[in-house]
Amino acid sequence: MTALIILLLFIIGACLGSFFNVLIDRIPRHESIVKPGSHCTNCGKPIPFSKNIPIISYIVLKGRCNYCGAKIHWHHLVVEIITPVLFIALYLVYGLSLNFLNFALMTCFLIPIFFIDAFHKIIPLVLSIPMAITGLLLGLIRCGFNFKDFSLIFLLPVLLLFAFLYLLALLWIKLFHREGLGGGDVILIPAVGAFFGVIHIPWVILLACILGLLYFLIFVRKPNQGFAFGNIVALASAIWMLIGDKFLQAIGWFL
Ligand SMILES: [Zn+2]
Question: pLDDT (tens digit, 9 = 90+) per residue, 95-117?
């Protein structure tokens, strides 16, 4: 049974990954994500279903368009692999549970956000706002539709976190005359908080800062060369959803 579920999660994840690639390519260009169907961005030829099978097509075609030979960006293969891998990892941690559904849906937003922020340094509102709403709706379900619990545990803390970050971003601009916290981060962090519960956010931010510092030490050569904090928050969230509970238990921190 477990093997069958893993196989199913792999297929679903790879197909969703293929869809996320469409989002990653088209949202920054303000193109429709439905029409036209899959096509080569170089020669414009439509890609038939038989040449559009997740993972397999990329490998068979050696990452090139079947017609014009133009290179297909490596993110296509990476996204089609990491999406099912994260789904399977979540299943192994949480089983088929509400927590699994919660974090699988968070993953569906984090992956396109991670790559769009990495390539374009933007976190599109068409992703971050639906992400926050989805997280809050799942919070309502996790509270058994008890609106009072939901308000106290999810809704109010998420709104307060948003207000705090928004004021922090404004203050930063006033004091330093440049953007410190990007507009996208101001929504992404509360959205992540909606899935985790805001109480986890300090840990996610701490992890993001450690990853950011490592990235800075390894890759950034010029001190004023900025990097997108949003994708590091997305990466930290993906790590925290897999190890957060275990880590907190290990250090004796019970929620
Ligand atoms: Zn082509």
Answer: 999 999 999 999 999 999 999 99
| CA of 32 relative to ligand 1 center, distance in Å | 19
Q: How many CA atoms lie within 13 A of 230 on its CB side?
A: 30
What is the Cα–Cα distance from 185 to 122, expressed in whole angstroms?
9
Dist CA 230 CA 188 (whole Å): 7
Assigned token pair, 1? 């049974």
| pLDDT per position as a tens digit, 205-247 | 999 999 988 988 887 766 665 667 888 999 999 999 999 999 9
Find out whether 23 and 46 touch, Cβ atoms under 8 Å. Answer: no
Paired with 39 in beta bridges are 46
Boundaries of every domain in the chain: 1-96, 97-255
Confidence band (pLDDT; 50, 70, 90) for 84?
very high
Q: What is the pLDDT of residue 167?
A: 94
Whole-number Cα distances in Å, 155 to 3, 12, 111, 137, 138 = 38, 31, 24, 10, 11
What would the two tokens of residue 191 be? 């959205």
Identity at 119, one-letter amino acid code? F
Place of tokens 């920054």: 28
The Å distance, Cα 11 to ligand 1 centre, comes to 26
CA of 39 to the centre of ligand 1 (A): 8
